[in-house]
Design a protein that fits this description.
7 helices; alpha/beta; binds zinc ion; four-stranded mixed β-sheet; globular; Zincin-like; 148 residues
Length: 148
């Protein structure tokens, strides 16, 4: 098994160029949200679920002041970085935290776009919501994008 593993790593290094190796950094507070999202998209095609092997998910203290957003997804084919505003996160309830995290994950890992459906997690205007409501919407979004 070992030589095959080495060959795969080598291939990633060659193809990745300056990326060298897949790199993932997830803030420990956001890790459970990330893991749940990855589980939800497990049946999506590899081209979707394994895209952007270099990933950062982190809190930043000045995001809202800097950009006017409380969450932000920077995305390319190879690299994604999600920022969540620390102060905003600390003042919202669990349902809204789930909604915010899933909103940014959907932007970065499903390339979802905004919509204007009331109380939808992809509506750019954050509304009070529950985890159950967001989960149902996410499963529909995954069905639309991944066909599963
Ligand atoms: Zn958005």
């Amino acid at each position: 098994m070992l030589p095959i593993f080495k060959a795969q790593i080598y291939a990633i290094v060659v193809l990745g160029g300056t990326l060298t190796l897949p790199f993932v950094h997830i803030d420990p507070v956001l890790q459970p949200y990330y893991d749940e999202f990855q589980l939800e998209i497990k049946d999506c095609p590899p081209a979707i679920k394994a895209a952007s092997p270099k990933r950062i998910v982190e809190f930043t203290d000045d995001l809202e002041e800097r950009t006017g957003n409380v969450g932000l997804c920077h995305r390319s084919v190879a690299f994604t970085r999600i920022e969540i505003d620390t102060k905003y996160w600390n003042k919202i309830n669990d349902g809204m935290r789930y909604s915010l995290a899933i909103h940014e994950f959907a932007h970065c890992y499903l390339w979802s776009e905004h919509n204007n459906k009331p109380h939808h997690f992809m509506n750019p205007n954050m509304n009070n919501t529950t985890k159950k409501e967001v989960q149902d919407q996410l499963r529909q979004e995954i069905k639309d994008i991944c066909g599963t």
